[in-house]
Amino acid sequence: MGDADERYNAWFPRTPPRECGLRVVCFHGAGCSDTVYTISRVAGKMAHNPLLAWQQDEENDVQVLGVQLPGRDQRHSVPPFTSINDIVDAFVADCGHLFNTPYVLVGHSVGSWIAHGVAKKLMAQGYEPPLQLFVSAFPPPTIPAAKRPWNSSRVMSDSELQAEARAWGVNPVVFQQHVWSTYAPLFRADFRLFDEQRPMSSADAWLGSVPIHVTGASHDTRIMPHLLNGWRKLSSHCSVDTVDGGHLFVFDAPARASWFDMIIKGVDALTISRLTPQVLLHDVISSIVNHGTAPSIDRLARAHSETAETITTALCSLPGVVVHPLLASVVEVQPFSLVPSSVCIRSHISDATWWAPTLFAALGAAGTALAEQPLLSITCSVGGAEQQASIVVRHGQLCGVDQVDSDDGGDGGGVGDGDGEESGIGSRSSRLDAHGDAVQSSDVSDLEAEIQRALRLHDQTTTASVALPSSSSAPLALSSSSSSSSFGARRNSSAVTGQHHIDERGAVHGARRRHSEQHAPAAFTSSSSALSSSSYPSSARGSGGRGCIELSAAQLDRCYVYFLVDPVPVIDEQGREQEMRAHTPMAQESAVHHVDVGYGTTLLLSNKVAHAWREQHHMPSGRILPLVSAFELAKRCFAFAAVHDPQTVGSSGW
């Protein structure tokens, strides 16, 4: 027997190693052992174990592994651990190779903290995250020491330790003298695991999009429901259930069976037949990038040999994915939107266009999922008003319009107004204004002055704050050919089947509409707007369409982006930079626990204008960042959207 086999047998003494499609790795609580999960007996009596029955069905291709910690049963001669961090380090060092297979982690009582720590350790070492984390009867590892509902046991006398164990619901048989002499050292070591574990910061404990399922016990006198709700702050997807029992409900046959059934149901909804969130997300984003639309639920179900219900549940578990509640169709998958928005991305090679829910998402899409596109332009509003600006992205990098020439493969039409004149991206080697004159560097400061005057005029002539156009607004018509389609991430065609549009009343239409005058953007129909194109110098107009500013390299460097939610990675108390993520935990208790960092992003044409705009519209919170910095942050935040070779993440079966 090799060293690897010996290490495996030490941690999993009752389950022989084998290949499988999914591993369910389970961690027991204090004073317990792996038998909580791996045998069909409870309190010395035969009892149904749904996990074992589930594993024994070969069609499921599942392996249930009960972890046995040192100091008990077959490992009674090995000194027990007194630190969760030491358990995590040793376990991952010995068993990390097992997690190259899709996996789920399960923990009861303090085993919940161990399972959470293993998930963080594996992710830090580059392993895929768990498909789901199941925890029970324990608060999150962020709970402050002063709020922990137990007493520190390190200096307790023997009688005090027994009283503490009774408060946890330990079986009275354990306190018989001949039994207690065996259990006392184990309890002292195991209780130290949670007594002496330092509280984690929310940033350190955050699991991102890993779904967390929390189970409490209805008669648990220590771990009350409000403590379990703290887990909601550690994931963008968290649910809480209850079983009928006390803290040690794993020794109550009906309660244990109920919990195991919850685990099986949760896993089946996410991962039957090796369906993983990573593969599903890859399929959806690839379809949007390559075909301009998200695949239907039915098509995904056929591709993965799953039910529509399973696919819908899996989609809803993904961060940034919105599924229509009535039609079960995808309407948003970050960084793309399948319904109208005020932000549009156009390829100047294929003439394909995509919607984005926010400017930040559009920057992320252009730098990740669409990074292989030779030449893109992002069209968005300036200051949340009717004025439009065009940001050029070439091969995944920001680029001034004056740095683009015909060698980049532009179509010559660029961002035009459809009048047939040769203008826009790809038609000049330098920036031209509406009259065909080259823009001089002095025009940049003139433009800033005009923007400031226009903002002041807008503030005087409107009674409401400037707001982003509603989602029912039509996109900016990028060219004459783009007017043939009015919504959704799409290719330009008169009709694309399977794509849905949600109007202001929530009605959904399967066929696309053509642009009409009533669907045209306000900037194209309003002659009285304070921010009409006439408010801008000639250098700001021209080939970008009526009032659309095509940003030069100099202007890109001067532009700023306002964020309602600060997107900069958190720096913890040790000075370590935390991982950038698409959803950020809020500092206070709220019904909404996570906010998209791209929400409310607004393009502003200079730092001076940005701060003036912020004051005008009473935006004391958030942050203003240079456009160049915002683009780099967006690429990090939406790195998950990069389209990889399907063979690296699994086969979509398409």
TrEMBL record:
This is Thioesterase domain-containing protein. Residues 466-486, 526-541 have a biased composition (Low complexity). It comes from the Eukaryota. Residues 54-251 form the Thioesterase domain. The lineage of its organism: Eukaryota, Choanoflagellata, Craspedida, Salpingoecidae, Salpingoeca. It comes from Salpingoeca rosetta (strain ATCC 50818 / BSB-021). InterPro entries: AB_hydrolase_fold, MerB_lyase_sf, TEII, Thioesterase. GO terms for biological process: lipid biosynthetic process. Residues 402-445, 466-543 are annotated as: Disordered. Belongs to the thioesterase family.
